[in-house]
Each structure stands twice: as C-alpha cells, then as structure tokens.
Task: inverse folding
C-alpha cells in the first residue's frame, strides 16, 4: 500500500504538467501510465501553444527549451479563392502564439518528472478508481506483475478520451455533449522548410488544408480527408499533389516536398463531459473534452484545466480552503465551451461538407467578411490566441 496526496492517472501533457506544478509547491503525487515512456514520448500530436500555456509551462519550470526552440508567431494566413488574407494576431489582440511540438513539451515534462524517482510509474495496467465519494479514495493497479493500491486525498483523471476515469463513473452521473464531423485529417510530417513563415489555413472546393511547422527545417501539413481513407492509400506524391491543388498559386509555388517521416489519419470530434468533478475525482483534458484540431485548442484546454485544478489543490494544501476546488468544474467548463464553440465554428468555416451550394456560398461570404472586417478578424484572433482567464 502506497500513499500520496494526489493520484494522477495518465502521463500525457495534462498528467505530467499537473504533477510537475504540484511538486513545485511541495505537493506529492504519483502518475500511473499504462504505456511505456518511449511510446508516450513518440506520439506525434499538434504543436501550437497559447501564451497562457507557455506561462504555465514556465511556472512549472519546463519553459526554457520551449522559449529557446519554439517559434513565436504574430499572425496566420487564411487562404481562399486563390488569395490569402493575413490575420494580424499581435496587432489585433496584443498577443502571439508559440509553435512548439506537443511531443517536445512531453519530453521536457518527462525529463523534469524523472528528477523524482517513482513519481511516474510506466506500463501499469488494470487501473481502477475506488471510493471517490469518500475523503480517502484509492486507486488499484498492476505494476511489474504485482497488484498495488495507492491511497490518496484526490484523484486526477488525466487519462484521455479512452481512459478509465470517465468510463468508470456510474451511468447517469455525467452528461455528454457530442458532435462528430463527416471527415478526418490526414497529417504528414517531413523535414522540409515550411512554405510560409506563419501557419496557412486553406479553404478550397477540394477540401481544407493546413500548412504548419515544427521548425525552419521541419514542416507539418494536414489535408481534410474522408473517414474511410487509409494512410496506405496516400503515397507521399499523392499527398503533395493534393496539397498543391488546394493552395493559392503564390503559396503552392513555394511548396518544398520530400519524403514523409510520419503520416496519420485522425477523426474530428467535439465532446464535452459535464460535470468535470465527482467527489474527489477531477476529470482533466481529453478525459473530459475533445475538440477538432482546427483551432489547436486540445493541448491548450488541457493546460487550462491543469491551471484551474492546480490552483485549487495548492490553495487546499496551503490553507485548507476547498473553495477553488469546488469551483473547478464550472470554471473549467466555462472555458471549454467557448473553445468548443470556436473550434466548431473554425471547422465549419474552412472545411468542405457534403455538396451544399448554399452552405458553400455562406462560407465564401464569411471568409470575405473576415478579410474586410477588423471586428470579425479580431474575434477570430482573440479566440485563436486564447481568451483571458476569468479569475475574478
Ligand atoms: N491507465 C493509465 N494510463 C492511461 C489509461 C489507463 N487506463 N488510459 C489512458 N492512459 C494514458 C494514455 O496512454 C495517455 O498517455 O493517459 C494519457 C492521456 O494522455 P492524452 O490523451 O494526451 O490526454 P491529455 O494529457 O489530456 O492531453 C490532451 O493531447 O491528444 C492530445 O489533442 C489532445 O492536445 C490534447 C492533449
Ligand atoms: C500543428 O502544428 O500540428 C497544428 C497547428 C495548428 C492547428 C492544428 C495543428 O490548428
């Protein structure tokens, strides 16, 4: 039997960032992860950080490499009707974003947690949460062939969409709001220079395309694809030809192609779970909500949950006050729904749905409006860089 203050299930960005932040305030936690360290480290995910996420990583003591190697972006391009329109994020909101791969942040967090032996247990199995409605919840798990139990004050369910935390809750104890999209994203990573110094979000009759990057030598591209598509059906050549076809000539002319390092297809989904707290169990990040990647909100929402929860736990262990913890679900969901709305709106604006000429005309009109209206551009920009935290 082992004891800790906070049992954390899942060593993704949510679990590790929470564990690291708590340790900076002398609060003990144990992270239980079912995959190996290498597997978790090798997962290719998104890579765009709101500045509040950057600040939280700095507060957790894992911001140094991010600030050295991350790319500060003050704007983005919207590409449509064979033209481009730059959204001046910095000019419209005073804020920038940082391009830094999620797997790089994951690496920084794993390194920082490895300073505390036993803080993260990899390759555990049969994780089960018990007694969350008592002051002394327990988490059972198997590790290195033996069964163990962790006694704790609180459990943080940071185990993603497929985790046990949410799945283990009694039927009817939570509400789920879901929207699925009739298409996916085919992503490709390649060691080629990006075609544009800032991200390009392209709307085209053939479907959406996104031109992103990881560095000045490594690029990340995405194409809207059908949910039936398989990676094997997409040779590198087919990918590059299709990308070129969806970009305005001026962008397509600057496209440098090369062999892919990684290709993967992801479905698009919006999902929100309410509430995000059940007794001593707190749901965090993808365990509670999923957004389509269009607005790059997945990682930033996870970090926002960690910010709200860590402040509540720190206050609880400092003063005994449980006020912030009691407000966790409402505060987190306030931000989750706004980011869910923005991600849904940005996805609806830029993707091709089934042949619907009226909807296509509306999309074209909205893109035109965005290109001409400072008010509309500012609304997009302030949601994209991340809304201010309501900490009143
Ligand atoms: N027991 C232990 N660990 C588990 C279990 C389980 N039963 N189920 C899942 N896990 C682990 C997964 O292996 C994964 O490492 O929980 C972790 C969850 O991590 P993420 O899915 O990355 O979720 P989160 O930390 O909330 O990060 C959200 O990740 O998927 C992106 O777009 C998403 O950017 C967002 C971010
Ligand atoms: C990425 O770089 O992977 C990325 C960037 C912005 C998005 C989605 C993904 O909206």
Result:
């Amino acid at each position: 039997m082992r004891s800790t203050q906070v049992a954390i299930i899942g060593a993704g960005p949510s679990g590790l960032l929470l564990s690291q932040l708590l340790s900076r305030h002398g609060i003990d936690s144990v992270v239980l992860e079912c995959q190996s360290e290498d597997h978790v480290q090798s997962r290719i995910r998104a890579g765009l950080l709101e500045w509040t996420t950057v600040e939280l990583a700095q507060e957790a003591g894992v911001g140094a490499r991010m600030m050295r190697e991350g790319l500060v972006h003050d704007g983005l391009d919207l590409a449509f009707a064979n033209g481009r329109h730059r959204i001046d994020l910095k000019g419209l909101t005073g804020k920038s974003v940082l391009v830094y791969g999620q797997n790089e942040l994951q690496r920084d967090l794993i390194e920082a947690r490895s300073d505390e032996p036993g803080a993260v247990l990899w390759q555990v199995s049969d994780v089960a949460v018990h007694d969350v409605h008592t002051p002394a919840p327990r988490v059972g798990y198997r590790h290195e062939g033996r069964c163990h139990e962790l006694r704790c004050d609180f459990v943080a369910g940071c185990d993603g969409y497929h985790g046990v935390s949410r799945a283990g809750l009694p039927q009817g104890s939570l509400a789920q709001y879901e929207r699925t999209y009739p298409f996916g994203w085919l992503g490709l990573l390649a060691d080629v220079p990006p075609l544009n110094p800032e991200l390009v979000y392209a709307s085209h009759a053939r479907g959406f395309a996104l031109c992103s990057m990881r560095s000045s030598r490594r690029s990340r591209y995405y194409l809207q694809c059908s949910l039936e598509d398989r990676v094997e059906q997409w040779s590198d050549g087919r990918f590059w030809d299709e990308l070129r076809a969806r970009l305005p000539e001026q962008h397509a002319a600057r496209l440098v192609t090369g062999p892919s390092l990684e290709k993967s297809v992801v479905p698009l989904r919006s999902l929100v779970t309410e509430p995000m707290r059940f007794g001593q169990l707190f749901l965090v990040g993808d365990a509670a909500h999923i957004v389509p990647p269009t607005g790059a909100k997945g990682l930033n929402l996870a970090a926002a949950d960690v910010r709200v929860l860590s402040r509540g736990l720190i206050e609880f262990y400092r003063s005994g006050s449980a006020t912030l913890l009691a407000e966790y679900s409402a505060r987190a969901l306030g931000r989750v729904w706004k980011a869910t709305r923005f991600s849904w709106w940005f996805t609806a604006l830029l993707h091709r749905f089934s042949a619907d000429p009226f909807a296509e005309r509306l999309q074209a009109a909205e893109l035109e409006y965005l290109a001409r209206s400072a008010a509309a551009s500012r609304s997009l920009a302030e949601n994209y860089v991340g809304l201010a935290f309501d900490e009143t």
